[in-house]
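Re: the request from the purification team.
They wanted to know what the chain is likely to look like in 3D before they choose a buffer screen. I agreed to run a prediction and write the result into the notebook, where they can find it.
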Amino acid sequence: DEDEEEEEEEEEEDDEPPPTIVETAMKKGEGIRQLYFAPKDERSFIHVRAMQLMKRDSFSYPEEEEDDDDDDDNEEVETTTPLTQGKKQIKQSVLASTIGVPNRALSLMRDTLALPTYRYACYTQIWIPHAEKSSGGADSTCSGALHLCPEVNMNCFLGGAILNANALPPPGHRLPYYAGGRALQFAQARCAIRGWIVAALPLGTDDDVGQGYLHTLIEAFFMSLYERGYGSFGQGGGRGSFFFVKRFAINSGLNSPNLDFFPIANIEEEDLGDVPIDEKSNDYLWRSATNGTESHTYSCDEFAIRHLLTKDILECMERTERSVALPSKGWQGSRLSATFLTSNSTSSSAVGCGATDLVHPMGGMVYRSLKCEILRRVIEGRAGVSNFVRVIRVAFIAALLADMGKSKLDLPEEDKKEEKKKGSSSDNGPPPDIPPKPRAPFLLCIDELIKKGGVTHTSFTRCLRVLSGHIREPFLHGSLVDIERGERDSRERHLVEPEGFPNSYVRGASGLYLRAGAHIEQAGASVVNDGVAQPPSASSAVKGIQLHVLVEPVVPEGGCVFGGPITLRVVENEGACREFQRAIPVDGSRIDWGPIFLHAQPVTHAKQQTAASGSIEGGSGSSSAEKAGAVGAMGTAATIFGNDILHGGGYQALELIRLTNRSPLLWVKIDPQGLYSGRISIFQQDACFAEQLFHDGDAASQLDAMRALAERPLNIQGSVKIANVYDVPVKELPVRVLGDCLRGSPALHSDLPHNPAVRAQAALAIAQWQNNKAPNSRDAVGVDSWLGLNILMQYFKERYYSHGVVMPNKFTRMTIKNPASGGQGGNTEGASDAYQYLDTFADKEERERALKFAEEIETEEDEEYRVRAAVITAAASVRAKDGMTPPIVLTFLEAILHSSDGSSASNLISPEENDLIRRREKRKRIKRDNEGKNDSDVSSRQIHPNGDVNVDDLPYVSSSLVADALLALCYINVRPALIDDPEKGTQIQSKEDHPVLPLMEACHRWLDWELYRESIRCETEMETMTGVGGGCYSTIAPCAITALCSLALLRQSTTDAYIEEGEGNVEAKSTDCPLSGTKRKSHDRNKKSEEAATAQFYVDIFDSRPIRSDATRAAAAQALACICCAADRLEYFSAEPVGLLTALEFMLERILEPTTSPSLRQTLASLMLDASQGKVCSLQRVATIAGRGDLCTSGVRFMAGSLGASYGGDNGSALLMTVSEATHPAANAVNDGARRSLSLLQRCGRDMTYGEAAVARVATFATVLWRTINGEHVPSLSSSNGKNEDFDGVCAFDGHLRCALLALFQWIWPKGSCNALLRVQLWGNLEGTDRYRQIGADEVMKTTKEEKEAAAAEEVMFHDLAKTVSFEIDRQKWRGEMATKAYEYSRKDDKGGAAKDGIGQPLSVVQKDDAWKLGGWAASATQQRRAKGEDGGSAGTKIRLRAGGGG
């Protein structure tokens, strides 16, 4: 009876409905909360409500039946203060930006760890205006420092995070996904993931300061899974959010094909053989519809491209270091030491300097974040994603068991029934004793980590090797012990063997650099074995075509040697693809990975090529021009291309370039799995790169092909046997291929168009090609002179020009599923769903019929604005050989700036179509309500809980389009025209207005308008005080200020009138208007153009009230530094060059102001470092980084220039990164002045060159700077000795700021002592006199006898610590010297028996010359080895002159 009663009670409990989400959240506090500041006028009522809750005995939420009075109170409150439309929009902005975003990140992490629940029952996101960490900053609208980006610094905690409310979209608006929306989504996801990792995963050893790299590595892995599953538009949010589109959300998360290796078992029941289950290297071999559409980028492509861009940033940081720098030394700091001083094998707490390096603004956490992203890719390739997941699970499970007091993991006992059954069926008595089954490796690793008390560098690597098994052993081989300088072998030689995995990847100062060349030739007679040609035998011989791949590693000075297994992929015609396992020699020698026999038919036969070249009389090539009858793009000569730059015969560029390939080879790819994730430059035919661009499914591989084509044809490249293909010069085919990729469907008819992410990179590659092949003068005319520029302009005409007017950008495209009528309209990804774009239906009746009978109607974001911005940047970056910008670019930029803000309505459909869609949705909703069905599908685009606003109806914020156009002005270079002087018979500058004046006027108008709007936004914010939105607008004003300053400096530095007036009027120079010379004559059209060249103009912007945004103030400080430094550019001035000192004093005084935010302080400190190095004008820090909140895109533009990285050879972006009088006059003027002023700071006080006032001024600045670094309270420069012990200084709790200022101090005074300060301290006899006070010497700090004794005692106290630091730094230096020492040993052992052609001969270390530092590592290595005679003889000739051999 009792059992029956219990069963009945259980049945009754089962009959109870589960609690709803609202009940769970209200009663148990579970769920995800969003908190933001209430509007100002509602806060008093909130306090009243809080007092009512305080009177209750319990703080739990009251029951509904007990809350009648409170409900009445609420109604009265709402009646008294009704919510206005603006307040509703604020709530909608928060909801639409957050619904489902953190939940998806936490769910993915939970499923990856195979846990039943989250770590916490509730998760709270707190949105605070200008939310920042005191030590760094979680401000996703950072003002100009890379370490303030969300990828590096965030304010998360267990169960929640504090986020910047300004990063949310403005009320009533939405952000473009790739112009603020993606950064907002990923910031929330990263906070959720990072908070869980840091809270749940302890690290071994006592490294409580440096934090190590393992947390960052594991975070990078989880974020990579999130990016692959939710990384494209419409996948990362819940219903009703900005980040949800039903069609894309269905295939997101674990349903994404990118994550189909889940679920992953911890303990494998069976041996999987030699093939890992998660090997997906061939999944993206061929391009398909899964790569996205012309207006939508799929997550896998975005993920691959961003990884390559991250690699670009890391390479830029590493290639500038000749060796490992000392801690915090130099303006960029010792960023390379961040990984070895804080890697957990050496405790940074014990070493002491690890934390200092970690917070350096240009290194530290920024470098660690980038390094861990590359290391994550290496581990995935070597160990496999599944084994990586298992290791992370081991770490989390071990931490959980350790918290529970467990010493090992005990699995549930096995079921004994099966054993008993087997024993009873046996006829020969009891079964024999079976040896116990060995403990699974997964369990052994858990037990090991429990004993260690946390995960360390060593234990992590050992678990990775154990769980990966013997299959992966060759890829994970390496030393876990740091090789020191004193260790020697039996021959008394230093140990110089490469450390391998993981030390070379975690602590190495460089990645892998590899040059390869593909050479195709007739095999003659050979025997084929598994695709590899063997020496011929008497019994059999095979003739055909064979491939040789010659490979040579390139080891830079301070770098590491990488060796071991690697994969060579050979893709042949007719779809054949083979992979071969090869090896990179550990001694850095050249090797031949061939011969490899090619089986397929040639791409083009000799007769086809000859016919296309027009060599045969009456062939198609000779008559194609007559058939086209087209006029060239410049209208100067007849060509085969029409005004639309399309071939008259209807050929694509890919079809034309194929005719140059007479081999079976399509392309060669090395290391497709990313085992090394290094730089690999392959020399193969142009046609091979074209095939790779259009047919390789890996977006990173497509980008590599673009960069290679941007350098073609090379000067040393052998040409094919024909000069033209259907009247198109062969040398033009590379840029024609890039042009087809950029233009997409208008230029393609037989290939899929690329997605916007790839096409944006194609625009930059075209500009690189144009700069490499530019004419000698900007005034050159002709069809071939500006071919790349014409292609960029043609794209813009096709997409954004109508009747000579620049059209606004449309941000959305409408798609329909299963329309009633047919039609070939752009199918989107997921062809089985039969989605079509509505704008592909040209007929109005057809559109209405499609809308009426469509099964589903979706609105997706049109990402064409990404390509638009890239084209504007690319066009502005085009230069002639003389460094000048073509006139057509100036006209183009002026038209862009005079157009509107570049935005249009969210949906470009007619009102009738819009009404049809609304009526259709209403009927569908009524029908579903009558049927009692859930209407979640219908309301998926409604913002809940209001449900009265559709996300698709909100307008987009287009500030990023304007900001990119303004920033592009910084890349132009133009001078006044030259005319003939009839009196002197020479050329002089024209008296006409400077060509940049129209651009300056447009820029000034945008700046005035944006400063006015910023003031209005400040007033509006004071009324609500919620802080929601506004951050997206912080990019226009900084870009306008930066562009205006750059154009003003360009105008003055390239105008002879200013220089002549400066020579004749030395007294005109002043700090109020620091540029030399008086103002120009009254013929200037706009007086504001003169104001832009004065320091006071930018001081007024910085100090204006109410206080402007941090980004605007930072841009004003950057412009002021440029103006002040440029004032000292002319050496014949007798006045003391104090421009740099003036700028440094200004920024330091603003750092000390209490109203300055921590993020602005750190940005100002970074600008002080830039100004001291003469890079403040060329880097454009604030305009590039501020307000964007994306480390990847901002960092690559900041580090690699406007056109990005190269393929290792001729870099069209290097022209823009080289500062000289011819290429960058404005930056050159700033650098010249900064150089002279820096000399004053360093030499002042050493002799009598400078006066007493200058010496006292420098000493005062050094005093204030040093006291600020020490954390003392310094009110201002005017009262620096007014020390107040009751207050802490700005550096007391800000390690980033202290480290940046310390690096500045060490850069200005490398020996740690200021000569001016020491000089003033010797003026003791003048102390107390009026003269002493007049020159400001009384403000200079003095060193007392007690302080000297205390300093000496500290030196003794920290002697052992200093030895430890020196030892660790020397160990890292030795790691960079091992390759050089190994080469010296090989030269000693060489008895003259090296293989012919240089095969097998170790190669010397390559110096990091100027070409290397600008990204031309392959060209630099070629030149240096050719000078040393190490270019390989005939083997090098195969690479350089006969690569491809298909001509």
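For the purification team: The CA atoms of residues 892 and 1228 lie 26 Å apart.
Please add any questions underneath this entry.
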